[in-house]
Amino acid sequence: xxxxxxxVRARGVGVAVDGHRILDGVDVDVRPGELxxxxxPNGAGKSTLLGVLSGDTVPTTGTVELGGRELRRHAAxxxxxxxxxxxxxxxxxxxxRVEDVxxxxxxxxxxxxxxxxxxxxxxxxxxxxxxxxxxxxxFPTLSGGxxxxxxxxxxxxxxxxxxxxxxxxxxLDIRHQEALLDVLRRTVRAGAAAVVVLHDLSLAAxxxxxxxxxxxxxxxxxxxxAEVLTGALLSEVYGHPVDVVEHAGHLLVVPVRTPxxxxxxx
Length: 266
Ligand code: ADP
Ligand code: MG
Description:
Elements: E1 8-17, E2 20-30, E3 35-39, H1 46-54, E4 61-66, E5 69-70, H2 76-82, E6 83-86, H3 98-104, H4 118-128, H5 144-158, E7 162-166, H6 174-189, E8 193-197, H7 201-207, E9 210-215, E10 218-223, H8 225-228, H9 231-238, E11 242-247, E12 250-255, H10 261-265
Parallel strand pairs: 3-8, 3-9, 6-7, 7-8
Antiparallel strand pairs: 1-2, 1-4, 4-5, 9-10, 11-12
Helix pairs in contact: 3-5, 4-5
The structure holds adenosine-5'-diphosphate and magnesium ion.
The site of magnesium ion has 4 residues, from helix 1.
């Protein structure tokens, strides 16, 4: 499944809107065999960066290469066979059933030999995202979490060697959060490259091979979770005191809380 050289390499990426710098001098690599978690406060520029890495947003400055070739030199259809994107907001997809939405992931493979695998790939993707039981439901009638899982199934059905996901776990319950990241980790172990925007820093600590912290449009840290996810750095970046503790072999990132007025009374 994975074409060699499917590294995404951003260098000196800047995005300015109305003279306001949303991203500034961002260098980041998304490499085959690696799950990269992109974290940072609201408005840090995570979604914008994902848009730049996917080729949906053209940066004001800097370059993005995919497999050693500049993104803008890839034809749209070729790009869709190499990188798949799960956006933060899923479209409403009026009139479509879950199975139709997942099958849309196969459209880049239309009229290629891979088309022969469509039924099997779609069924597998629905199993892995746990939406097999929802196949005949109309997409707009699903819960937020069910919609997110359907979008994830669609991304898996696209079967690209590079996966980009913007807050895919935001609406998911704890079981489906773990399941999604487990599926992603297996995909990455099989040779894919993945970049995932996450707000849950404990999830990032548990599943990411590398964590990139974005703040005010700049890369604040980039490295293995244990090096990057420190109380000092996170407290500063998020503007709230944060503790990092070890639990059952994993790092947990927890906010420091002052006693509530109710607790003080008791
Ligand atoms: P994140 O995903 O980290 O929360 P975004 O990348 O969505 O952040 O946005 C970064 C900042 O840029 C935010 O302050 C947002 O309001 C602003 N921004 C993003 N896109 C636009 C746009 N098209 N026009 C104006 N401001 C934008
Ligand atoms: Mg965002």
